[in-house]
Amino acid sequence: MENLQIQISEDGLSATLTLTRAEAGALTYPHLRYMATQSGIVFGLADETWFTTLLPQLDKPTNTLQVAHGRKPVPGRAPTLQYHFETDYLCAGQISADGRIDYKNRGTIPFTREGTLLAEMIPSVMETPGITVQGKEIKTPVPTGQMLSAGPGTSLSPDNLAIYAARDGSPHLALDGTVSVAPEILIEGDVGLRTGHIIFNGNILIKGVVHEGFRVQGMHITARALKGAIIQASSGVMITEGIIDSQVSVEGSLQAKYVSNSQIDAFGDVIIAHEIMDSNLRLSGRFVNKRGEIISSEIAALKGFFIKNVGTGVSRPCHLKIGVNDHVKNVLTNLTIRLKSAKEKLDKEQLLLTGLESRLITLQSKTASLVSMHEQLLRDEAGLKQPDRERKDENKHQLFATQKKLHAVDTQIHEHFTQDDALCDSIDRMKETIVPLEKAWAELQKQYHAVASWTTKQGKRPEVHSSGLLMEGTILTGPNSRRVLSRDISHAKLKEHVLEDGTHKIM
């Protein structure tokens, strides 16, 4: 019996005792409790009734009993967000089986009425810590989740658990999780000299063309054509004709008939009905061009290509980057540059503010000393004005000198107060300058973390599906490999594979 020992599992959640049939017959419950105490077991020890009932049933030469049980931790559940509108602004629009886009169908853009529930938070469930048989607490990670963020056109409920529409419009979920309701404006003709730039925090419907050098910035932007335009959309872009010589940045999907000599950056899918030529596209979604041709262009698409023809016999080779997120890399690089610039401006102003505040503290310290001196001179003046026949002439001279000092100190104090007021005004103005800089810095940080977080949730698909012809010379680049086609390939389905030796190859 002296050799019996209780074994505690590595996770501390169970304790076992191995004993022979003879040892089982001799073991008593007080002895078990003594061994448990010696092993530091303070939780979950088997009760005496169970023990005395089980022991006679042990008929094997060697038996293992679980004599104590810990309590496993129960993980909590993070708060979850439930949206009551179509949030997937990255999804493609209406496209028919033969690859044609229905440009008249704008039904994918949701619409809501004032007072409608848009989003709500399902509260978290707190975790329950576990406990080992030796009484040690087993902690489980505290669940964390995204909080509701109410943007323009919405209101947050008093308990912060729901978002409602504060106006009629199109509900929108931004990358950073902010819910807003966008109004809509209609531009009957072109965007040009008559209208100037169009910057509107809502959906913009343009019946004409956006001309060269003009900027349109909004949520979902629809236009007939872009010719030298600069477009920035926080939702989606639909162009019923073509995009020529333009720059487009969109946080959702983009659709157009054709693209020529343009730069397009999109978080979602890009669907082109006909040809795309001499252009550069960086996408975090899919590139879809099932009926047209890709000519002399470079396209990076994280979620793959669904295309027809690539290249011609006389044009510059195309470069398709499959499963590569050049788009987000570029976005994060630009945000990093802007963050650095914003931080430098903020640090510069805060350094100037610190200098002003230091000067103010020094000035106020000197002013306090002058005020103390002034009070002492006033007491001296009062004493010298007291009648004293024996020191009448001497007091007269001292009184004159004291009053002269009083005048000088008065002048200094007045100058200090003037400087104090000027410094306080400068500090107030500096603080007013710093507030928007701090907001800009915080907003850029929020954007950076939102994009970085969004990226981690996106799967990549390094594949090319071609229903037509991939011309010789076409360059294919994947996350870990590169291939230049040595011959024309028709009806291809190519993807990046991991070979037996650990290398990668597109085939």
Give a short overview.
The chain is α/β, with parallel strands linked by helices. It is 29% helix and 30% strand.
What does this structure look like?
The protein is α/β, with parallel strands linked by helices and 507 residues long. It is flat. It has three domains: 6-69, no CATH class; 186-329 and 464-506, no CATH class; 344-456. The protein contains five helices and 40 strands. The chain has a 16-stranded mixed sheet that branches. A ten-stranded mixed sheet has the order 14-17-20-23-26-29-31-33-36-37. A hairpin with a 4-residue loop joins strand 11 (170-173) and strand 12 (178-182).
Low-confidence stretches: 89-95, 103-107
Principal-axes geometry comes out as flat
Q: What is the domain tally?
A: 3
Largest sheet: 16 strands, mixed
Measured between the Cα atoms of the first and last residue, the distance is: 69 Å
Write out key terms for the chains shown.
16-stranded mixed sheet; single chain; 3 domains; ten-stranded mixed sheet; 40 strands; 5 helices; 29% helix; alpha/beta; 507 residues
SSE blueprint:
Blueprint: E1 6-8, E2 14-20, H1 21-26, H2 29-38, H3 48-54, E3 62-69, E4 80-83, E5 117-122, E6 130-131, E7 137-138, E8 149-150, E9 154-156, E10 162-165, E11 170-173, E12 178-182, E13 184-187, E14 198-199, E15 203-206, E16 209-210, E17 215-218, E18 221-223, E19 225-227, E20 230-233, E21 237-239, E22 242-244, E23 247-250, E24 254-256, E25 258-260, E26 263-266, E27 270-272, E28 276-277, E29 280-283, E30 287-295, E31 298-301, E32 305-310, E33 319-322, H4 326-384, H5 392-456, E34 463-466, E35 469-470, E36 475-477, E37 482-484, E38 489-490, E39 493-498, E40 504-506
Parallel strand pairs: 8-12, 13-15, 14-17, 15-18, 16-19, 17-20, 18-21, 19-22, 20-23, 21-24, 22-25, 23-26, 24-27, 25-28, 26-29, 27-30, 28-30, 29-31, 30-32, 31-33, 32-34, 33-36
Antiparallel strand pairs: 1-2, 2-3, 4-5, 5-10, 6-7, 9-10, 11-12, 34-39, 35-38, 36-37, 39-40
Helix pairs in contact: 4-5
